[in-house]
Amino acid sequence: MFAGLMPVAASLHHHAIEMLLKGALSKSMTLEELRFKLRHRLPKIWKRFKKVANDPSLSRFDKVIKELSKFDDIRYPDKLLRYGANMMFDITRAGAAQSFVTGVTEPQYKLCLEDIDELVAVIFQVASRNKQVYLRFFKPEPDQYLRLHNRYFP
After folding, report:
1. Which of 89, 96, 99, 132 suits a disulfide with 112, CB 3.0-4.6 Å?
2. Which tens digit of pLDDT belongs to each residue from 10-51?
3. Cβ contact 41:51 at 8 Å
4. What confidence tens digit (pLDDT) does each residue in 70-118 have?
């Protein structure tokens, strides 16, 4: 993301969220259902996750899922080459509140890393997974960077 490779960074976030959600759903769905019914459709996966979790407060992440799912649509460059794109990936909500673009005709893609971090923390919580177990595989530098100014992964 910091290298300016927005489509790649956002696509990796899309796939990470998809994998976390499917991991949580693996308790209630077969591999075939996960693979062939849900495929890579993040909104569909999210809808199923919310249904299984039976937690109405999860709807607060609907916008994050919607924005993140846009990046799956640009996995192949034909749409980017045809329509162009205006992409933003803010680190904090405060930064996201200050960064906006007007008068742009290209499709807009906007994510906030703090929103994604909160979503990941909630997925771990709802799925009854211990995020510290997953984090133990990190090397020291990425682990330190993940925890820097991150209230969801202190």
Report:
1. 96
2. 888 999 999 999 999 998 999 999 999 999 899 999 999 999
3. no
4. 888 777 778 888 888 888 888 777 777 776 677 778 888 888 889 999 9
Task: Report in angstroms the alpha-carbon separations of 82 from 9, 107, 129, 154.
Answer: 21, 11, 42, 42
Q: What global pTM score does this model have?
A: 0.84
Report residue 122's pLDDT band, with 50, 70 and 90 as the boundaries.
Answer: very high
Helix or strand holding residue 86 (H, E): strand 86-90
Q: Are 136 and 72 in contact (CB under 8 A)?
A: no
For residue 6, the tally of other CB atoms under 10 A from its CB is: 17
Dihedral angle sign, alpha carbons of residues 90, 23, 32, 45: negative
CA triplet 30, 23, 119: central angle to 5 degrees?
A: 140
From the number of C-beta atoms within 10 Å of its C-beta (0-12, 13-18, 19+), residue 110 rates as middle
C-alpha to C-alpha distance for 126 and 128, rounded to whole angstroms: 5
